[in-house]
Specification:
961 residues; alpha/beta; eight-stranded mixed beta sheet; seven-stranded mixed beta sheet; 28 helices
Length: 961
Amino acid sequence: MAGDGDRILSEDRLRGVLDLYERLRERPPWRWRERLRPLLLLLGPGRATSHAAEMLKTRCEDERAPVSHIAADTPATDVAGVLREAKRELSQPSSRARGEPPLRFPLLEMALWLRDLREIRAAGDRPPPRGASPAERENHQLVRRLTRPPVGDNENARRRELNRVIRRRGRDVLRDLESPRGRPATFLAFLEQIAPIGIAVVALVSAGTAAALDLAAAVLAAVIGLAFVAVQILARTRGWYGVRSFGWFLRQPYVDRDSTGFLGFALGVFDPRPVEPDDHGEQIDLLLVAAFLEDLRRNYRRDYRRAAWARVRYPVLIFEGLSAGHPGVAFVELAERVRADGQADDRFPGFDPLIVTAGVDPAAPADDGPNAPSGPRLVDRIAQAVRVDVSAGEPQSVIGARGLWDRYTREQRRVGALGSRRELRVDITRDPGGDLPPVRPVRRRPRIAHPALPWIAMVAVAAASITVISVQVVKYCSPFGIRRMANGECVGITDGSFRFGEDSGGRNNDNRLNRVLDRIEDLNDHVKESGKPYATVVYLGPVTADPSIKNHRIDLLAGVQGELIGLAIAQQRFNDAAEGDDLRLRVLIGNAGARFRYAGHVAEQIRERALEDRSVVAVIGFEQSRGQTQEAIKLLAKSALPLVGTANSYDGTALLDGDAGYSPYYFRLASPNLRTARHAAYWARNGHIGGTKVDDAVVVYNGDPDDLYSGNLAADFQEAFRPGEVRMRPYGNPGELDKSVREACREQPDMFYFAGRSDEFRSFINVLELSCPKRPLVMADDEIAKYVSDNAAEIGRKDTFDLYFTPLAAREAWTWRWIGDQAPQTFYSDYDPAVREMTDENNEGQRPSITRAAVAYDAATLVATVASKVYWQEKALPSAGSVFAALNDPDHDVLRNGASGVIRFSSRGTGHRVLDKPVILATINPDGTTEVKQVCGRLIAGEQGQAACPPGDGNGHGASR
């Protein structure tokens, strides 16, 4: 049926057009399916096209899709006017869904502003029109400054002035020539774009930093990250990027490009010199259209921005009715030229999402001239403008054939980008009748692109990161395997870089270990940096004090401080003596926690470290005889690691379950309790303690079943003291200790034998001083040497009791009386300077235990010496197995000049004890110095001074029998 020229079809009869319209503006869900959309021409008289255009516009507005409607009688007189109107309407709230950011046109706004400046410049000295806005008046003043002396005569001054205005105006270069959004709205728009991703990234980086470094580094990373995000938002909101954000203009073929940068380009747009080209206006229009299409392209580019994925409708530009003089015709022609230019230059900027719908009267002439009615039609002119040019297929010469393939591939790319047809024509007055299917349903925004999703994801990531950091803070003290236990202690392995007590603020650790840990870290760093071969020993000991102790005077750390200093001295002496490719020594510190509570946990870490790091050849330490220490020894023995005990004196140390005997991998340096108790009892019974023979004694010891040392030593002394009278006084807590001592003082014995721990010794002597009627005589083991180190001066000054004890080693034993003319052990000459360097001057009165330092020095030295021997014998790096084999040699001294005596281990059957281990009797003089009274055992390899020793303990060096 022929169309009726005055007929206007209802929306129901235009369902076919609506279905086509929906297909055109529906954005495919996949990027690879996106293609440039053709021009939709609605053919019919003005009333019909106006009705159809209004219907299409209303459909977009009802679903808040981006649309701009240009009326047939639009006040716009040129392409710039069309673009201003299109930009304004596409940026309106009605053109976007709730919660979505508006479309932004920064390139178009800059191009329009430069065009406005050109118009002002072209108008000459014409003043601003009456009622002009402040921004327009400012534009006139700017043009006047840029075109007149003195600024106008200096190119650099012109650029500086233009740059100043651009930076001051920020993102809104057009100012109130348009209807700019307020700063809060702009801020929120960019906040939605940057904040969720930025904060999520900052949260992840902070969590990773907390896991890789520590909490302080995580907080620093978070502060820096959030500051960076805030600066980015402010920079984008206020336009701080300045001319750097307009580099796109320099890549366009329109207007003469300036190689000196955007400012030169901008001056060439509105004030080209020396003269303006004839086609300058047309080139500016092309630049405007190109900027408009590029802005749309950027708004719809699928990248990290959620909003780009949420836009499921392409923007639509509807021309209600085009006529020959309508600026919309020029816009369509220029838009197709820009698209074609982009393909011709092989730049392939990507498709632009703009859909153009135009109402055209099929009878409308193409021109406005007097001969227009008989000339070509407007619809044909538009069709010619959007036609995709391809070759006619004319045959080429044999020379022209050379370029056929390149031309063919260019055409293929052009057709692939632009399509084979660039317009679709619909006669909206033509209705053949019949039923029409319903319009296809519109595609909804993906749920994954909901505006709230980035914020939800940001909150989830931030919450997860905060949880991770919280877990790191609560569970770990350091990323390198230093774990925070339930009682607050930090346990694990370090190379000296982690200070186990640094977070206590002095409450449970007075930081007296920091400097010695720093020294060990430096020595380890030198080993690593040298690039020379090295062997690693791991020290396992109680590097932190018990957090439950409220008394801030922590005497327990004197022992571990001494052992660490001994390790550092041994490591430095060994490495200083190494030359060329000699073996070096590296030392790792394992904190088993106070009272070795977490020895099993750290032993498992050491075991895993030894499997990964084959340079680990031995573990030394195990100073406290506790049940947890026994479990750690059994666990480490499964890894076939040599284990060297320093001060662990429990008789059954390393004794395996059943009839398996002693572990073959454990070597003890301390004299067993049985040997020490036998000497103590002998000296007491024979008048070598206090000057009189002791007939009765009270043994005070800790009854904790996990404390293997205390009960074992007490029982050994009770057995060795016979036939003397012994009263046993166990205690389980400080209150019981106080009660036991008070009761013992009612019938004061000749001697108190203290078999408890050094942290309990102060309470013990306080009760003695207050409760005993006579001056008490106290005998103790090496355990109290840790207390004596810090309090020797106080003990001597008070002079309220007589103290004798049996240290594992003593500097005072290396005097002429005991070693004669033999040179003293060099350890003791190195000790005092090392202590000055590795202790804090502020911790006066807190001296490291020299006894424990000497034993640890021997442990590290003998392992390093044996490892070096293996290294040169086997011409290969020593392993744990080869070091164990060299240690397990009962026929040779493994260390002849030890600081604690000559070291030769017995067989496995007796627990690899040191044969003829020296047992020393020492006392504290009134001036606080230590005096050695007896030395039994093999202190030196040569002749040794005479001492009173138990029968059968002869060592062939002058000991009385």
